[in-house]
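Changelog entry: the PhzF family phenazine biosynthesis protein record was regenerated in this release. Current contents:
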Amino acid sequence: MTDYDVLRVFCGPGGGYGNELGVVRDGSALPERSERQALALKLGFSETVFVDDPERGAVDIYTPTLRLPFAGHPCVGTAWLLDVPELTTPAGVVGARQDGEFTWIEARPEWAPPRTLRQYATPAEVDALAVPPPGEWIYAWAWEDESAGRVRARAFPGRDDGIDEDEATGAAAILLTTRLGRALNIHQGTGSQILTAPQPEGWVEVGGRVVLER
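Regenerated structure tokens:
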């Protein structure tokens, strides 16, 4: 079995929750895309990262069923694990920095896959949502405190791969930040926390806590 680390990304204030991420530090152990896709399916995480060059931060990201040019929580988690100033993804170069307990990346919203951002009137409505059938990728959200930029959100990938809901999703948070044009403090899933901040020239920073699970 190929060695890999398991992280939790976008953890809550106490270090709990967060979205699990698999990281294969030695991507050369599985050089073929078909091999990587097979391992990502076997591991079953919402995303698995293969590191092709740890010094340059060159990474390759897979869901259980497809390859992604960019994804938020995999980049935040891998940037923390490798402790590098940037990551090289197929979408482009992702800036990275550490700020106390938070790891931040800077990315462009056009790198994020399409998402349906669906606003609800109250957090209670978001909490009560049932998992929709496979289809469109839905980011359901409501204001917890609009003046403070606090958001309640849940993410439904709409994929038929056993992942009904993502606990924390940086790419969707980037899209929501771009739409609203302001910094956000997002409570997603059961207890995850995602912070975002718009940057000049259309860039967006997204940050959170990372914990090494095993």
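The longest strand covers residues 204-212.
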